[in-house]
Amino acid sequence: MMPAARESLLDAAFSALAKRPWSAVRMVDVAATAGVSRQTLYNEFGSKEGLARALVRREADGYLAGVERALAVPGDVRERLVATAEWTASLARENVLVRALLTGCWSERLPAPTLSAVPSSSAVPAQRRADGPLPSPGDLMTAVRDRAVAVLGGPGAARADTSDLARACELALRLALSCVAAPPAGADGVAELVRGALQRHSSAQV
Questions:
Q1: Domain topology for 1-45
Q2: Each residue's pLDDT tens digit, 139-171
Q3: pLDDT one-digit tens code per residue, 73-117
Q4: In the chain, where the domains are located
Q5: Which of 146, 137, 115, 145 is nearest to 52 (CA)?
Q6: 109, 183 contact by CB (below 8 A)
């Protein structure tokens, strides 16, 4: 099947999840919305569990792609970490699967695939990847922190500099997640909170 058709099926599953609990999402309805046969859906994902894993994998990948964009925005290290925190908070607020991935809190409305790898007999490379390990909150935190160090630390950064950068990134991410649970006041609340915390963190290192 073409990758575009797979994406259409994942889009249809995500849209269905916005309207009803995952337990009430029917494969036949997902296939009909995407304009393919139910057999094509099963050929691609294997089962409803396989579809759930693929959907969760896609949302995790989308979050990390956004992190890459945030780390690449113009500005100094602090502003790029602020951008990463803003992206994390905004996406987690609007995307229930990303929120669950980042917090580990899976409500009864959501699919709850096991994070460990499952046996896969799929001939579809993207599905074999989805059947592999799914990221825990700690895995995502580590992935973002390591990417921030790689992008912002530079090739000649000293160990102390990269260690401080890793701590600053983790601080920004944890503040962002706290803003999902208890949103700060004002349109720029996340940015102001994270910017202030990073300023104090930087001053404490001097």
A1: Arc Repressor Mutant, subunit A (1.10.10)
A2: 999 999 999 999 998 765 555 578 999 999 999
A3: 998 999 999 999 999 999 999 999 999 999 999 999 999 899 999
A4: 1-45, 58-205
A5: 115
A6: no
Contact 194, 164 (CB under 8 A): no
Q: Are 179 and 189 in contact (CB under 8 A)?
A: yes
Give the separation between CA 40 and CA 31, rounded to whole angstroms.
8
Tracing tokens 């099947």 back to the chain, one arrives at 1
Q: Which two tokens stand for residue 38?
A: 């139910």
| pLDDT at position 160 | 56
Task: Please tell me the pTM assigned to this model.
Answer: 0.92
Instruction: Report pLDDT for 206.
Output: 44
Q: Give yes or no for a contact between 39 and 118, defined as CB atoms under 8 angstroms apart.
A: no
* Residue 127 CB coordination number (10 Å): 22
